[in-house]
Design goal:
Layout lengths: L1 E2 L5 E2 L3 H13 L12 H15 L2 H17 L9 H14 L17 H17 L15
Antiparallel strand pairs: 1-2
Helix pairs in contact: 4-5
Length: 144
């Protein structure tokens, strides 16, 4: 037997299904006679069990993400993407005199924009924290 929209058993043949629908419509058979699923009940129980295991900060983060998703309805989330962070960073640098920036990716088939932006952001953050050291190649031709 096939299942109806709420998990009810329905007859697979068209004529038998039409007869069942007519009987439901005339009141001969009620939809309550058809077994209903307990998906809603088990889903709530699972959510409750998960909430008990999570720390309050984790629950808050999940709730915030869910609320943002509901309110944005498919729009980009309020969290900035790595590419947007990089655009903002370069906009600030352009205001202070930066003219041009170029990136060369060795294998563009394997590179994803978001990953490239993330790596560039990580490099800039390391420079800002001072987690870098100058490279010395002992080249006498380089003027310092």
């Amino acid at each position: 037997m096939i299942k109806g929209p709420n998990g009810e058993r329905r007859k697979a043949d068209v004529v038998g299904n039409a007869v069942l629908v007519a009987r439901i419509a005339t009141g001969e058979v009620s939809d309550a006679n058809v077994a209903t699923s307990n998906k809603g009940k088990s889903g709530r129980a699972g959510a409750h069990a998960r909430a008990l295991k999570l720390m309050p900060e984790e629950r808050s983060k999940i709730a915030s993400t869910a609320a943002n998703t509901r309110w944005n309805k498919g729009a980009t989330a309020m969290v900035k993407t790595e590419c947007q962070k990089l655009v903002d960073r370069f906009a600030a640098k352009a205001a202070s005199g930066l003219v041009d920036v170029k990136f060369f990716v060795r294998n563009p088939d394997e590179a994803v924009h978001e990953q490239v932006c993330q790596e560039v952001n990580r490099l800039y953050e390391a420079v800002e924290r001072g987690d870098v050291a100058d490279l010395d190649f002992n080249d006498s031709r380089v003027q310092q």
